[in-house]
Amino acid sequence: MNTNLAVQMERLFNRRQDGRAICVAADHGYMSNVTPNVVNLSAIAQAAIRGGADGVLLSPGQAHRLARLFDAPDAPALIVRADWMNMPRLGEADLNNGVPPQHLFHQRMLSARQALALGAKAITIYLFLGTDDTIEATGIESCAQFISECRRASLPCILEPLAFGAQVTEKNLVDLLTLGARMAVELGADALKIPYTGDVESFSRLVRIADVPVLVLGGARSENEQDTLELLADGLKAGCAGCLMGRRVTQSPDPERMVRQLVQIAHPNL
Questions:
Q1: CA 172 to chain centre
Q2: Which of 6, 14, 88, 269 is the most exposed place for a label (fewest CB within 10 A)?
């Protein structure tokens, strides 16, 4: 790993000298519906920062708009979503029945250098599995191009493998996510953002196979705050490096308190 890239990874994962990171995903505004957490993003981002977040994931436009929040030397790392997809708006019925490939759109939004110009310390992009070979191949090609750009720009690339579509079943979901984790690493990912596999044993296997920092994502919002805290605790028990959670934080009645609790679990020696 080159020196500049190592410095950026340290900024995100070793800010607390323990190799862990609590990150908040607040990039939903240009992929899903207009909800209060999208409209109130500035206040929520500031609450996450006050709560002690190590990183915040934003869309390119919001990264530009909220750049001032990340200027201080002790500010969390700004992570920028470098791609876009329409999956959240396809509808629950489509998702449950397997999304027809022609209905899924996935687009590059900016280059690694453009992300750097916004102040990004890392970018995040999707890798889709479980639809069809054409979409998977296109996604792999796109990820490879992003990673190549990131290497030249000394910018960490966090890949987000997602398994959905007609080929995904309850029986093969964990295997697909585990395969996706390894594929992402083989492509050159510096870290992963990935769903929890449902139990400590299978997630521990995924983390071992990945062999790069793994951030567990939160998925759908849970009304039970304890579920979120237990999800992170189980992920850490399995060996993950922390979390990159979205709606479980941004739709919380008290995002600052939620982040503070996650930070206390991941960084108990603070």
A1: 22
A2: 269
Q: pLDDT tens digits, residue range 47-101?
A: 999 999 999 999 999 999 999 999 998 999 999 999 988 666 555 444 445 555 5
pLDDT confidence of residue 35: 75
CA-nearest of 206, 267, 209 to 15 is: 267
Q: With helix as H, strand as E and coil as C, how does the chain read?
A: CCHHHHHHHHHHHCCCCCCCEEEEECCHHHCCCCCHHHHCHHHHHHHHHHCCCCEEEECHHHHHHCHHHHCCCCCCEEEEECEEECHHHCCHHHHHHCCCHHHCCEEECCCHHHHHHCCCCEEEEEEEECCCHHHHHHHHHHHHHHHHHHHHHCCCEEEEEEECCCCCCCCCHHHHHHHHHHHHHHHCCCEEEECCCCCHHHHHHHHHHHCCCEEECCCCCCCCHHHHHHHHHHHHHCCCCEEEECHHHHCCCCHHHHHHHHHHHHCCCC
pLDDT value of residue 90: 55
